[in-house]
Amino acid sequence: MIILLVVAVVGGTWWSNTRHMDFVTPPTTAALEALRIKVESSLPREDQSDDAISVPTLVKIPEPPPSPPEPEIDLGDLTTPPTLQHYGDLSPQGAAHLIELANGLEKKGEFHRALLAWERVIDFTKSDESQAATAISSIKRLRPTLPDWNSKPEAKLTVTIHAGTGPKLAKSLASVLQDIARDLEAASSGIVKFTPKVTVGKTSSSGKKPTPVALWLSGPDKKSTATEVLSFTVDASDSLRQDALKTIFQLVRSHLGRTTRYTPPADLAEDEDPQSALNFRVTRLCWREFAAALNVPQKKAK
């Protein structure tokens, strides 16, 4: 009985709602098109997904335009022969400017001029530690590839290396200073001719004590200007060359600092080779100015 009632209710409801509908006649083309449009409009578009899974299309931000290239540094007149003090007039612009100039000259293949610019970094400007190290490294790289600045013997300035010691060390010292004189001439790029002169003093009271050595530099004669006198002692002759070179470096450095307007080289670092310092940390211009200052008559004390 209940089943009949359920069937009657369902059937009555279906008949009541569908009695006016036509399930036999096919839909018209217009009706199908309208239905198609309605269904398509209800579906999400491919380029506008609203679901939580699809990744939205990101807007591409245009890249910023490239920075304009920096203007090339003015290398100046490359047709006239350079002088030993070349680029000194640019020192007020600072070490960084001279470093940029030196690099630009190297790229141009102007290695003689580049070396002069690197030298101005260390003898004309107050360069910081990094700038000085860059310049010295470049000088070490370029100097051996270029000829001496002066190749005329008659144009060389004469500097005398004076040394005083006892008889025990005199012969060894004379030989060492002869070798040092040749090395210093090369360090000056042929600008200075060094002549050693050893004076033998009295015999020390005890042969076991370290032997003292006094060193100073002057012009070619007794009337010439001289540096201060520095002394050191020698325990073994095998350290004589290094001790003499260290002392000569200190004499040159001190005299440049006291008597010229150039920036003197920094003091020797611990375990630094004094020969390398004389070769590459004293510029060719400073060698010339140092020798020229010693080649004038010594001022008489009033």
Short key terms for the protein model shown above:
single chain; 10% strand; elongated; 302 residues; alpha+beta; four-stranded mixed sheet
Itemize the secondary structure elements and their pairings:
Blueprint: H1 2-18, H2 29-42, H3 95-107, H4 111-123, H5 129-142, E1 157-165, H6 167-187, E2 192-200, E3 211-218, E4 230-234, H7 240-259, H8 274-280, H9 284-294
Parallel strand pairs: 1-2
Antiparallel strand pairs: 1-3, 3-4
Outline:
By secondary structure, the chain is an alpha+beta fold. It is 43% helix and 10% strand.
Taking the sheet with the most strands, its summary is: 4 strands, mixed
Helix-strand sequence: HHHHHEHEEEHHH
| Count of helical stretches | 9
**Which parts are unreliable, with pLDDT below 50 for 5 consecutive residues or more?**
none
Q: How far apart, in Å, are the first and last alpha carbons?
A: 151 Å
Rg:
45 Å
Q: How much helical structure, as a percent, in the residues?
A: 40-55%
> What's the number of extended β-strand segments?
4
Mean pLDDT: 86
Strand fraction equals: 5-15%
From the spread of the alpha carbons, the general shape counts as: elongated
Class per helix and strand makeup: alpha+beta
Can you list the strand order of the major beta sheet? 2-1-3-4
